[in-house]
Amino acid sequence: MTEPSLRESLANWQTGALFIIGSAAVGLLVVSIISGAVPRSGVVGLLSFAAGAVLFFLAASYLLYGR
Question: pTM of the entire structure?
């Protein structure tokens, strides 16, 4: 098996960074939306962050990889 080229490695790294940063950003966006509608609670904030991050990850995976 050959090693990936520098271009392929950078593309893979950028895709991973998109997933991590995008998931965190969407999670924070969902928390800010939810915190305006629901009384503040640590559990609600954590669950809404996790839900937003997971939904972004699934949507981005589907759009990038078609699965």
Answer: 0.74
Q: How many CA atoms lie within 13 A of 41 on its CB side?
A: 7
22-62 pLDDT, tens digit per residue, is 999 999 988 888 877 777 778 888 888 999 999 999 998 89
CA distance 61 to 20: 12
DSSP sequence for 1-62: -PPPPHHHHHHHHHHHHHHHHHHHHHHHHHHHHHHHHS---HHHHHHHHHHHHHHHHHHHHH
Largest CA distance in the chain: 54
Which has the closest alpha carbon to 44: 26, 59, 56, 32?
A: 32
